[in-house]
Specification:
2 domains, about 35% helix, 11 strands, alpha/beta, globular, 13 helices, homodimer, Peroxisomal Thiolase, Chain A, domain 1, two-stranded antiparallel ribbon
């Protein structure tokens, strides 16, 4: 399979965007990526988690391709809960790497905020094992609360350490013009926010968001060298797991993410200690800790103390979620995995709003549900 | 890209299967295909059109992979309305052809009959351009009725000629043990059935169905020769179009299907006259006529007379839908495109319930909505 480069990127603002429709968001991000790459895609992968339930709209490949004037192209919609973006990125990478197409557009989009909040909870349960989890009232928040309790019980992780993830996310997003939240949050605010599912409270969870992100992929060989450094997809890994938590062997980590990371590291020929910047799936504060451990950035059980000490901050060993992540940049489900790639590309180009100095190797980590699907990509700066 | 063979097939009965769940159906078809191929897949493509709306269940890749004991594998859910199966088949083919994996399971599944009929109509509209079609009350039946009127006005196609498609479908399905309907239907019954959207009536439309179908794909080179002939995927093409009919240049054919067919014919190095058996997307009676013309089996405008004369019957020039097609075998949306492939493989192996003698080259044609997405595959018998 041939090497694949990211030739163009695009991203809308994330937030409650009342004046923009699902197709507006898709078009804005997609056209940015196409314009920057200055090539026309031959195929389009659309990542979207819940268009049928959020917007009463499916058949999204054809619909959205049409809205950017490319209705004749083959267009494929991918759904893997909030890992839809990462899965679509991997399929787009494989399409170019394997020779199905030379130029592929991968755009993730979600328009979540047109729904009332009660129904938001229902849509969340469709990403769980509905028969045994959703129907029992266990939405994603409740399931992540179980994970948090297990991590606290097994490793002595404290409530304050978990809350530190939220404080860090908001600090990182302050400079991000596309972020849903630019406000700082204090530790006390996280600890005293409205309760959701013990120990998680309102400020532990990522918001419902509208937004889109896009990458245009093409062969590295022959890619036009512009004023910006070229970025290559050096590794790609995906793995799955039982969705239902009661069937898992462990709740203190996500084995699917460990396997996806191992595959991506192997393909890229690097190890976790080589990574200089990461965008990880902090759907909840506890998920940041789990991610750091699953990816090998810190030892199992040590992430609570490590996050509190700043290991994942801008001055830490592994700056993580400089964008603000799902918590503060926002979490339009289908767009998450693609937005992570966009931020890593910016970091490697040296054009990020919250820049990690001299980064040459970055990683994105996208999780569906509570670890039922995980996708890891590694990106390298090419000279 | 390397040659790809179909190493195993599986299919459940299609129908109102009250005693089988979405995951039961998925498992039954998938395990048949895996057992027959005697290899374990490394990746799983799940085609499903409306699990979120029909079953309150998304994140279907991980969920269904788990249900067949393969939870650790990467699993990708594809949605393209009723073309989900064909699109997933093409992605699975590309994964093997391009080197992402050696063995890939592609399973299409839909569980539609748990919903009351009013809500069925709503789900249909999510496959249209909801903003301009669905919200105006135009569901798929109404849109296909517009297509039928255009075909009648442009070419003098008669109501009786259109109805002949339904009579033929039921005649073909009589021997199919997996078909939803085994009853013969008379022309008068079609003409006098309850009105849906003029000129289409109840017996012009495919039913809501539960069911699943699966293929296991692998490299042709080195494929084990068993007692059954090997079948190769000789051509694959996909194209899109504007979903909204008011933006189409023509309503008397589906340009996406013409482009998908042209790509598949070119890749296979054959023409329409070489095809000996076809499974086409007869979501409505008129759609059979459109398909025969889009695929080049009959000249534009001639399908009405040709179908009435039996050109697509078992003794005709191009035996079409020997399974009974969507109309009589059944139409579980996500399974359609995969079931078409399964039937063509049976035909080329010589094991079909309604066998076309000595068929060596077959075609499947899967359409999403009213031609917004189209996928065509060509299969050849290898000696």
């Amino acid at each position: 399979m041939r090497d694949v480069a990211v030739l163009g990127i695009g991203q809308t603002k994330f937030g409650e965007l009342w004046d923009k429709s699902l197709r507006d968001l898709f078009a804005e991000a997609s056209l940015q990526a196409i314009d920057e790459a200055s090539v026309q895609p031959q195929a389009i992968y659309v990542a979207n988690a819940g268009g049928g339930l959020y917007n009463g709209q499916q058949h999204l490949g054809a619909l959205l391709a049409d809205h950017i004037g490319l209705s004749s192209l083959e267009a494929i919609r991918i759904e893997a809960a909030d890992a839809s973006g990462g899965v679509a990125l991997r399929q787009g990478w494989a399409a170019v790497a394997g020779g199905l197409a030379d130029y592929v557009l991968v755009t993730g989009v979600e328009k979540m905020t047109d729904l009332e909040s009660d129904y938001q909870g229902y849509v969340q349960t469709t990403f769980t094992d509905q028969d045994v989890e959703g129907f029992s009232g266990l939405n994603l928040t409740a399931l992540y609360a179980l994970v948090a309790h297990q991590h606290m019980a097994a490793f002595g992780t404290t409530r304050e350490q978990i809350a530190a993830a939220t404080v860090q996310a908001h600090a990182h997003a302050r400079k991000n013009p596309l972020a849903q939240f630019n406000n700082a949050v204090k530790l006390e605010s996280v600890l005293n926010a409205a309760a959701l599912a013990s120990p998680l409270r309102m400020l532990d969870g990522a918001p419902a968001s509208d937004g889109a992100a896009a990458v245009l992929l093409g062969p590295l060989d022959g890619a036009r060298k512009g004023r910006l450094p070229l970025v290559r997809i050096a590794g790609s890994g995906q793995a799955g797991d039982v969705i239902a938590l009661h069937n898992r062997r462990t709740l203190t980590g996500f084995p699917a993410a460990e396997r996806a990371a191992a595959a991506a590291y192997k393909q890229a020929g690097v190890s976790s200690s080589d990574i200089q910047v990461a965008e990880v799936h902090d759907a909840y504060s506890i998920a940041l800790l789990i991610a750091l451990e699953d990816l090998g950035f810190v030892a199992r059980g040590q992430a609570g103390a490590a996050v509190a000490e700043g290991v994942a901050g801008m001055a830490g060993r592994i700056p993580t979620n400089p964008s603000g992540g799902l918590k503060a940049q926002g979490a339009p489900l289908g767009a998450i995995g693609v937005a992570q790639a966009v931020e890593i590309v910016r970091q490697l180009r040296g054009t990020a709003s919250n820049q990690v100095a001299n980064a040459r190797l970055g990683l994105s980590h996208n999780v569906g549900g509570v670890g039922g699907t995980a996708v890891v990509h590694i990106f390298s700066k090419e000279d």
